[in-house]
Amino acid sequence: MRLNRVTAVLRAAEDVVLTLIAVMLVVLAVLLLGMSVIGMVRDMKSGTLANAGIEVLNSILLVMMIMEIVYTVTRSLESHLLVAEPFLIIGAIAAIRRMIVITTESTNIQVTNPEAFRSLLWELALLAVIVVSMAFAVWIMRRSNATEPAAEKEVER
Q1: What is the secondary structure of the chain as a DSSP string?
Q2: By C-alpha distance, which of 74, 87, 95 is closest to 141?
Q3: DSSP readout, 10-52?
Q4: pTM for this entry
Q5: In sequence order, what are the residues at sequence separation of 6 or more whose Cβ sits closer than 8 angstroms to the Cβ of residue 54?
Q6: Domain boundaries, the chain
Q7: How far is the CA of 6 from the CAs of 1, 19, 71, 91, 140, in angstroms?
Q8: Nearest to 56 by CA among 80, 32, 75, 86
Q9: In this predicted structure, what is the pLDDT of residue 128?
Q10: pLDDT > 90: what percent of the chain?
């Protein structure tokens, strides 16, 4: 009986902590998005939007990652289950963000440091493999979830 109370208290504490995490992540996402909009408007006025476009895209992808984490935390709060798919999506978005950064950096590095450029190309290739692997894993999970009974779809923590 005492174990049930302890478990209930721990679950309540987990809910409080996860709720605070979700709220902080939403605040962070809103602030980042707001700063992106302000920066984009400033760059449009100064005529440098073409150069800053990558930075805006980078910020938007970061906001998407944060919101995927919020979604994952929310699902965890609702069901007390750990779901792997959102983590795969977050990883794919993170890899795509890095690929964009590498693409923009590579034009400057190619001329000044050919060895560093080759390293960036290898990193880009590995990131591409990671994105494809994660997309394939999400596809497999969705396909297997469509054929499994509802009770077996998620792994309980």
Answers
A1: -HHHHHHHHHHHHHHHHHHHHHHHHHHHHHHHHHHHHHHHHHHHHHT-HHHHHHHHHHHHHHHHHHHHHHHHHHHHHHHSEE-SHHHHHHHHHHHHHHHHHHHHHHHHHHHH-HHHHHHHHHHHHHHHHHHHHHHHHHHHHHHHHHHS-GGGSSEE-
A2: 87
A3: HHHHHHHHHHHHHHHHHHHHHHHHHHHHHHHHHHHHHT-HHHH
A4: 0.70
A5: 100, 101, 104
A6: 2-156
A7: 9, 20, 27, 35, 38
A8: 32
A9: 96
A10: 31
Chain position carrying tokens 């950064």: 101
Per residue in 13-71, pLDDT tens?
988 998 999 999 999 999 999 999 998 888 888 887 776 777 888 888 889 889 988 98
Joined together, the tokens standing for residue 147 give 């054929």
pLDDT tens-place string over residues 106-127: 776 766 787 888 888 899 999 9
- Exposure b/e, 9-36, CB count within 10 A at least 16 = b: eeeeeeeeebeeebeebeeebeeebeeb
Place of tokens 């494809």: 132
One-letter amino acid identity for 93? Answer: I
- Token pair of 55, please? 């930075």
Distance CA 99, CA 88 (A): 16
